[in-house]
Amino acid sequence: MRPFVLVHGGRHGGWSWRPVARRLRARGHEVFTPTLTGLGERAHLLSPEIGLDTHVEDVVAVFEYEDLRDAVLVGHSYGGTVVSAALERVADRVRMQVLLDGHLPYTGETVLDLTGPRRSEAMTRLVDDKGEGWFVPPTDASQYGVTDPAAAAWVNERLTAQPFKTYQDPIGPTERAWQHPGMFVECVPSSLEPHLLERARRRSKEDGRFHYRVLHTPHDAMVTDPEGVTALLLEALELE
Fold first, then answer.
1. By the number of CB atoms within 10 A of the CB, which of 58, 166, 179, 212 ranks highest?
2. What is the pLDDT of residues 10-59, one digit of tens each?
3. Quick one: pLDDT at residue 81?
4. In whole numbers, what is the pLDDT of the chain averaged over residues?
5. What distance in Å separates the CA atoms of residue 54 and residue 218, rounded to the nearest whole number?
6. Is 142 an active-site residue?
7. Residues 161 and 46 sit within 8 Å (Cβ to Cβ)
8. Residue 56's closest CA among 88, 82, 89, 90?
C-alpha cells in the first residue's frame, strides 16, 4: 500500500487533513500529515526567520526520516508551492504529485506573484496593520468556503498566523515538479487566481501524465468534501 504525504495550505496545519487521513488509513494506507514550522501545533515556533525553504525542509525530512518510497505527495493551496520545491529533492521517492486547488509555480516565483497584485497588496496591508509587519494573521473559515457552523468552528479554532516571509521568498528550481506525473484538482468555486487555473489546464493538455480534475466543493475541500478528495487521491494511485 503506497503512502500518502498530505501538505496543508497557508495558516492551516496537519490537523486539516484529519477527515481525509482517517479515510485513507481505513483503506490500509500509511498517511503522513506534517505541520509546517510555525503553524498549527507548531505555532509556538513562529518567528520572522521562517521562510519557504524552512517549509520545504519540513516535507523533505518526512521522506528522509520515514524512508518513504513510491508515495503520493499532495499539496493544498500554498502547500502546492512547498511540494513543487520539495520535488527537486524527493521526486525519485514520489509516484504522483497531487495539487488540491494548489499553487503550480515556475522557478523564481513567489506566493505573492501567484496570488496576483490585488490580493498581494491586500495581504501586505493586512500584515502591516495586524501582523506587526512580519506575519499573516489567521482569517475566518468562511474565506476558505467552510460555511457549516460546526466545521467552521473546528477550523477557526485551529487556524494560526504564518510568517510573511514564506509568501515573499522566491521558489527555487521547479523543473522536476513540471516534469513529474501529477494531478491538479480544481475546487469549484476555486480560491486560485484564473491565471493559475489556466496554467494547470494548459499543462494537462500538453502533458499526458498530468491530469486535470474538478471537484464541486469550496477551497478547503478536505474539510467540506473529504469523501470526494479521498476518491481522487485513490484514483491518483492508478494514474501513470
1. 166
2. 999 999 999 999 999 999 999 999 999 999 999 999 999 999 999 999 99
3. 98
4. 97
5. 28
6. no
7. yes
8. 82
> Does a cis peptide bond (omega within 30 degrees of 0) precede residue 137?
no
Other C-beta atoms closer than 10 Å to the C-beta of 191 total: 17
Q: What is the DSSP letter of 76?
A: E
Q: Give the pLDDT confidence score for residue 219 in this predicted structure.
A: 97
Q: Round to whole Å and give the CA distance between 138 and 156.
A: 8
Query: Cell 505541520 identifies what position?
Result: 35
Dihedral sign from CA coordinates of 73, 44, 220, 155: positive
CA–CA separation, 210 and 183 (whole Å): 5
CA 14/CA 21 separation, integer angstroms: 10
**DSSP reduced 3-state for 160:** coil
Please answer whether residues 94 and 73 qualify as being in contact, where contact means their C-beta atoms are separated by less than 8 angstroms. Answer: yes
- DSSP per-residue letters across 59-73: HHHHHHHHT--SEEE
Spatial CA neighbour of 8 closest among 232, 229, 236: 229
Phi/psi-derived region of residue 91, left when phi > 0, alpha when psi is between -120 and 50, beta in every other case: alpha
Catalytic residue among 16, 47, 77, 84: 77
Angle at 124 between CA 122 and CA 130, to 5 degrees: 95
pLDDT of residue 71: 98
